[in-house]
UniProtKB/TrEMBL annotation:
Keywords annotated in UniProt: Cytoplasm, Queuosine biosynthesis, S-adenosyl-L-methionine, Transferase
A Pfam family this chain is assigned to: Queuosine_synth
Subcellular location field: Cytoplasm
Subunit-structure text: Monomer.
The keyword S-adenosyl-L-methionine is assigned to this record: yes
Name of the protein: S-adenosylmethionine:tRNA ribosyltransferase-isomerase
An example Gene Ontology molecular-function term: S-adenosylmethionine:tRNA ribosyltransferase-isomerase activity
One GO BP: tRNA queuosine(34) biosynthetic process
């Protein structure tokens, strides 16, 4: 009976969260970021009081004190979208590079579109002058492929530079405009260091250098983890029982120093704020039996949905997410389903901007 009841709740949750947002919210999707990173709008939602405030993002300074901790994700987006042609036919194709499998062999896991036109053994050409040539060597999913870039006269470092010059910033599909040069900088946090993500940890896009410096001066700690965001972040949950949804694996690194700093803040009852759903997933992926953060170096497919007892962070910063997404489900688990509905309804009524380039919320 317990299992049946739990499954029923999960099914109800999917249908209930669908009505958080109207069917058509294209008017609310942000096509461009705000001119200044830290001047987007900010909802401050207090779980204890159930109250909502409307602020500007740089006002988060008022909510964090000395020895509080804001955990950042320093993953860096690489230009994962590359356009080319199929051999012989010249058909236009697009590959979305997911992750490098073998540097020496130049093997990549990639999504190739249109998938129905691509077969094992097909050669793909990218670039007009001295084109890069790739061969499809395996099918990993219905859309996914393993591709091998064929040898040329360049060493691996030069080859990767050439590949990145051909690539475009992988903006989410719900942004309908063409990428522009500014996206290379805008769709990247200012503290991005370790390349490997195909989507930006968008909650971090709102931090400016000036805001980070003011937080440091105030004595707030800003430790960094690395979680390379994968294409699965855009996958909607397509099953009725959300407990059966499977997350993609994403590479995660949490150092000993970061774990120690976070645990000290917990011991001293300070704020530990996850800057984004990627950080929250990372922190919840490495928890000891005593609810302490552990160092981690590996892969995580942690899926957080209601009900969930959070062990590390006691507040979070996040954007406004897509319906039926795992990101919205995590926020609902943290803020509570009813309060999340209230927040989203308020954001729509007040014309907040949604999704990657949109406005933010601070959940206390």
């Amino acid at each position: 009976m317990v299992v049946i009841s739990r499954t029923y709740n999960h099914i109800n949750f999917i249908s209930n969260m669908t009505v958080v947002l109207p069917v058509d919210i294209r008017h609310a999707i942000a096509e461009y970021p705000t001119r200044e990173r830290d001047e987007c709008r900010l909802i401050v939602a207090d779980r204890k009081t159930g109250t909502i405030e409307h602020r500007i993002f740089k006002d988060i300074l008022e909510y964090f004190d000395e020895k509080d901790v804001l955990v950042l994700n320093n993953s860096k987006v690489f230009p994962a979208r590359v356009f080319g042609e199929k051999e012989k036919t010249g058909a236009k194709i697009e590959i979305f590079l997911l992750r490098e499998l073998d540097k020496e062999q130049r093997l990549w896991d990639a999504i190739v579109e249109p998938a129905r036109k691509i077969r094992i053994g097909n050669k793909l050409y990218f670039g007009d002058e001295e084109p890069i040539v790739a061969e499809v060597i395996d099918n990993t999913t219905s859309r996914g492929r393993t591709i091998r870039f064929l040898p040329d006269d360049d060493d691996n470092e030069e080859f990767e530079k050439k590949l990145r010059r051909l690539g475009q910033t992988p903006l989410p599909k719900y942004i309908k405009r063409e990428p522009i040069k500014d996206d290379e900088e805008n769709y990247q946090t200012i503290y991005a260091k370790h390349e490997g993500a195909v989507a930006a940890p968008t909650a971090g896009l709102h931090f400016s250098k000036h805001l980070l410096k003011r937080l440091e001066i105030k004595g707030t700690h800003l430790p960094e983890i690395t979680l390379h965001v994968g294409i699965g972040t855009f996958d909607p949950v397509g099953v009725e029982d959300i407990s059966k949804h499977r997350m993609h694996n994403e590479q995660l690194t949490i150092t000993e120093n970061v774990a120690q700093l976070v645990n000290e803040a917990k011991d001293n009852r300070k704020k530990v704020c996850a800057v984004g759903t990627t950080v929250m997933r990372g922190l919840e992926s490495s928890v000891s039996a005593k609810n302490k953060l552990l160092p981690f170096d590996g892969w995580t497919n942690k899926f957080i949905y209601p009900p969930h007892n959070f062990s590390i962070a006691n507040c979070m910063i996040t954007n406004f997410h897509v319906p039926k997404s795992t990101l919205l489900m995590m926020v609902s688990a943290f803020a509570g389903v009813k309060f999340t509905k209230k927040i989203y309804k308020e954001a729509l009524n007040e014309n907040y901007r949604f999704y990657s380039y949109g406005d933010a919320m601070l959940i206390l």
